Amino acid sequence: MPPSGKKMIVAGNWKMHTDAQSAAALAEQVAGRSAQEAGQVQVVLAPPFPFLAEAVRRARAADQENGRQCVIIAAQNCHEEEQGAYTGEVGVPMLRSIGVGACIVGHSERRQYYAETDAAVGRKVERLLQHGLMPIYCCGEGREDREAGRHREVVALQLRTALGAIPGHGLAKVVVAYEPVWAIGTGLTATPAQAQEMHAFIRAELRALAGEAATHIPILYGGSCKPDNAAGIFACPDINGGLIGGASLAAEPFMELVRMARHAQSPA
Ligand code: PEP
């Protein structure tokens, strides 16, 4: 995929941060500024569950004011079943009913602290596709796997287990986020060369799973991505933007990353 004109997405994962007031204010600021600053870059915000509905309201207000969709509001997780006796869980139809348009699944923190498996994450991806929400599927190796040179193997197994049963036309609607676990929230970042190598590998794996339908699947990089290291990463040909944790909790630097993604899309 040539770097010029490539699809770019910048997604903010707020994790378990913000409160009702700060979440609403941040959603409003980012949505309003995205209308002016994002160009063709797709901006996605993933607030905590209790603040999703208000974030959707603020985003829709910005859409109306600007006559275009400014941001997509995403959840940070969902349950794989349609509904049922799953105390404390949130189903995809619930998210859809309040205007949520996307959902992060398989984040390494969910894998680590809640023992999520790729099989379960794959079912979440299918449920999201069934209801027309955009899945943002996270994969990535841990530090030990990277040091032992097993990073490709680990990520290939994640992709095959979670996405292997999804038909090509479904897979074409998935966004993949490559997030090396050793880089998340640690201040360590993959070098552009390390990230590009893994993104090209992931793209080849996706093509092996779903053929040409997979060629244009956006693959985001995540892991301590900030304005001072994003330029080299966003410029890589197989990197379609970022999944941003810490740097998404304030309008600047998040909007700076959006502008950098825009520049990477059309560097002229
Ligand atoms: C993340 O949690 O998806 C993430 C990339 O976090 P951070 O940017 O803080 O490393």
Throw out a few tags for this protein.
268 residues; alpha/beta; TIM Barrel; 8-stranded parallel beta barrel; 11 helices; 8 strands; 14% strand; binds phosphoenolpyruvate
Give your account of this protein's structure:
- The protein is built from 11 helices and 8 strands.
- Helix 1 (20-37) runs parallel beside helix 11 and helix 7 (151-163) runs parallel beside helix 9.
- With 268 residues, the protein is α/β, with parallel strands linked by helices.
- It has a domain at 82-246: TIM Barrel (Alpha-Beta Barrel).
- The model has no long low-confidence stretch (mean pLDDT 95).
- It has an 8-stranded parallel β-barrel, surrounded by 6 helices.
- The two termini are 17 Å apart.
- Phosphoenolpyruvate binds next to strand 8.
- The site of phosphoenolpyruvate has 13 residues, from strand 8.
Question: What is the number of strand segments?
Answer: 8
Strand order of the largest sheet: 1-2-3-4-5-6-7-8
CATH topology of the domain at 82-246: TIM Barrel
The helix/strand class is alpha/beta
H/E element string? EHEHEHEHHEHHHEHEHEH
CATH architecture label name of the domain at 82-246: Alpha-Beta Barrel
- How far apart are the first and last residues' alpha carbons, in Å? 17 Å
CATH superfamily of the domain at 82-246: Aldolase class I
Q: Which compounds are bound in this model? A: phosphoenolpyruvate
Largest sheet: 8 strands, parallel, barrel
* pLDDT < 50 runs, ≥5 residues: none
User: What is the class of the domain at 82-246 in the CATH system?
Assistant: Alpha Beta
Number of helices: 11
